[in-house]
Every structure is written in C-alpha cells, then in structure tokens.
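Long-time lurker, first post. I've been practising inverse folding by hand and with some scripts of my own, and I keep getting stuck on stretches where the structure tokens seem ambiguous. Below is the full token string for one chain I'm working on. Before anyone asks, I'm not after the true native sequence, just a reasonable design that respects the backbone. If someone could post their per-position residues I'd love to compare against what I wrote down in my notebook.
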C-alpha cells in the first residue's frame, strides 16, 4: 500500500497520554497527564443538563454562543486587562488545543519559524511540526526560568513569524513577570512578529503572584492571540471547551478555519460553561488555597525523598530533578527508566522529562508530577512515594 501522509509519519503516542494508558486497570495513581479529575462545579453541570433538556442541540455560531462570547469578553477585560472591543474578537473552540490549531493554521505558512521556550508543552511543538512550521528553541533553567532576551533576538531572522508564550507554564510552572512581558511586547513590535499566548493555567498562581497577559501590555494586542480554556479552571478537561481572544481580523479567520474543521464547539456544553460566570469569586480563592496546599504537599514530599524541586510559581505541575536519587537507587538512569521505576515501585504515574525538550538528553533527569488531584488522592500518592523511596 502507499505510504500514509508524510506529516503523520513522525507522530507517536505522547508520553503524557501514554502514562494514562499504562496505568489503566492497575490501581495506580496518575500524576502524569494533567487530567484534573476533581468535580466540575454544579452550576456548570446543571447549565449543560438544562441546555440538553431544552433541546439546545443544534450547531452554534462557529465562534460560539453569543452569551458565552460576551461573558468571555467581559472576563478578558476585567481579569486579564485585555482591550477587547467587541464579541467578534472572542471565539469559543474545542479545547484550547482547538484554539491553538486555529491560531497556527491562521498565522503561519509552511517553513515559518516560531520561537518556543524550553521546557515546553509538547503538544505545541508537535502541532507546529505537523503543520510544517519550524520551532526555534530558547532554553530557560530552574529555579526561575528567566527569559534570555538576547538569545531570543539572536534567533530572529526574516523567517521568524511568531513567538509562543505559555504563562503560567507547563511543565515548569513559570509565571512570566510583567517586566518580561513588557520586553516581549517591545520585541514583537520591533521585529514585526505575532505572539500566541497559552494562558490556560491563569488562575493557578502561588506566593501572591499575579497573572499578566501579554495582550494587556500597550502595543501588544494587535499582534497577540490569547488562548485559554475552561478545562483546568473548572475541572472539565473532557468537555473540550476553550477560547481565543485577539484582533478581529485574526479571530474571524480562525473562526472560518474552526468552522471547516469541526463547525463549532458542542452547543449544550457551551451553555453549561456560560454558567461559570454566575459563580461567586469564592470559587477562585478556594481553588487558590487548595492548590497552595497541594503544591506544598507535593513539593515537600519530593524534597524529602531527595529530588531537587524548583517549586512552581504557577500551574499545577512540578518538573523535578531526580539526579540525586541515582546515588541511592537503581532504576533512575534516565527519565524513561525513572518514570517506569515510579510505576513499578510506587504505582505512581509521571511524565518523562524528554517530553518537554527538543533533545531527549536535556530532559533525562526530570520527571513531571501533576498535583491537580483531590487532596486525599494526592496524600495517598505521597504516602506511596515515601514508602517506596524513604528508608
Ligand atoms: N495539558 C495536559 C498535560 O500537559 C493534558 C493534555 C494532554 O493530554 N495532552 O498533561
């Protein structure tokens, strides 16, 4: 038979998903894939149930139901400080991944360069590869993951079309500072670049940090597409609802593209998440407190066991360095071995570090732990880890 399309030949199962499949039916605890399996708020569930009962069952506008776009516009102005002018600058997508796909297919030509900060979220980089864009990497390092703007400028050539910002970051929890975003805004204007920002973890922040959106910095909005979603904030990763905010000229093309690919996001579920905006602010403060406690438990447990732990500034992942464990245990030769060892010895799933780096060797001493679990599940996971790796 003839070969499948060239663009799919390099595609393999991601390490993020692989761990979920590996643990299925094994009574393990999955701290790998960021599945966020706490309950979805009742108001959202009821909203979707009512919409289904009311037969809100047909396609919505390809950019989403107006009520939700309006709510997202208000939220983007109030929480993010983004100067959205009208609902045509907002679109609802199938997950923030759907928004990312629409953004890159709208902005980039085959062969364009995109600057990406390492460690990165692998789905970003793999999707860029599938569409034929070239990722150019700028390394950031623990514990603060500062941005080396000189390194960024050195990579910029006439082929460079866009820069990808992920704040708070997956897998390292980096929260971009306002000063960094101001420099980034200057840089994209100076070099006539677009920015795509993935802000899906925008409400998971630690030690009093604030979330700043690049699009809120003067001069950035016209060339920035801001992506986010409901999955993480409201524990509904399987509903697949995200959104994009940006200048109308870009968003309208992204909408046409989404229309071609999947017509619209599921209508009754859009009615469900619209209810999120009637919930009171306590939801966010309670979530913030719960994540502070979970981060503390996860990071102190890993430190006790001997990992080097750059405590995340935001998001709900920690990219921990297991190199110190090699002196005490076998099975930690590299990230794949370490990930398998944690499954075997403790029943704990994690993601191998190589998933977040261009060269496998750069990720070979890291594992990513996700602590978006119910507190008692995380406690159980930490007990299992300690039993396996403490004397
Ligand atoms: N964003 C989540 C993660 O990094 C899950 C999405 C996925 O399965 N790729 O784990």
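-- Answer (accepted) --
I ran through it position by position. Result:
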């Amino acid at each position: 038979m003839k070969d499948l399309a060239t663009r799919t030949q390099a595609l393999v199962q991601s390490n993020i998903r692989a761990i979920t499949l590996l643990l299925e039916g094994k009574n393990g605890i999955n701290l790998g894939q960021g599945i966020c399996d706490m309950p979805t708020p009742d108001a959202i569930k009821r909203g979707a149930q009512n919409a289904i009962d009311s037969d809100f069952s047909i396609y919505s506008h390809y950019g989403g139901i107006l009520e939700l776009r309006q709510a997202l516009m208000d939220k983007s102005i109030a929480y993010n400080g983004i100067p959205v002018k009208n609902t045509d600058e907002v679109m609802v997508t199938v997950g923030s991944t759907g928004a990312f796909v629409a953004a890159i297919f709208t902005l980039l030509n085959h062969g364009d360069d995109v600057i990406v900060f390492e460690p990165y979220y692998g789905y970003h980089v793999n999707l860029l590869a599938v569409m034929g864009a070239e990722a150019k990497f700028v390394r950031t390092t623990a514990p603060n993951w500062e941005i080396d703007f000189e390194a960024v400028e050195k990579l910029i050539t006439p082929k460079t079309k866009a820069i990808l910002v992920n704040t708070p970051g997956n897998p390292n929890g980096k929260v971009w500072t306002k000063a960094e975003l101001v420099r980034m805004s200057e840089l994209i204007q100076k070099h006539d670049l677009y920015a795509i920002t993935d802000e899906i973890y925008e409400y998971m922040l630690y030690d009093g940090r604030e979330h700043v959106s690049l699009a809120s910095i003067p001069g950035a909005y016209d060339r920035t597409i801001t992506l986010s979603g409901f999955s993480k904030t409201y524990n509904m990763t399987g509903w697949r609802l995200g959104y994009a905010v940006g200048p109308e000229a870009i968003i309208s093309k992204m909408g046409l593209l989404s229309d071609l690919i999947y017509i619209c996001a599921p209508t009754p579920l859009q009615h469900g998440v619209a209810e999120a905006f009637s919930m009171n602010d306590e939801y966010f403060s309670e979530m913030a407190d719960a994540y502070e406690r979970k981060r503390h438990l996860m990071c102190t447990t890993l430190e006790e066991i001997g990992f080097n732990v750059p405590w995340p500034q935001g998001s709900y992942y920690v990219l921990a360095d297991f190199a110190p464990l090699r002196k005490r245990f076998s099975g930690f030769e590299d990230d794949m071995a370490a990930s398998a060892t944690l499954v075997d010895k403790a029943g704990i799933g994690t993601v191998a570090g190589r998933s977040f780096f261009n060269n496998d060797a750069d990720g070979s001493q890291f594992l990513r732990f996700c602590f978006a679990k119910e507190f008692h599940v995380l406690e159980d996971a930490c007990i299992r880890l300690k039993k396996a790796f403490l004397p």
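A couple of notes from the structure itself: The mean pLDDT is 96. The chain has two domains: 6-40+282-389, 58-278. Happy to go over any region you disagree with.
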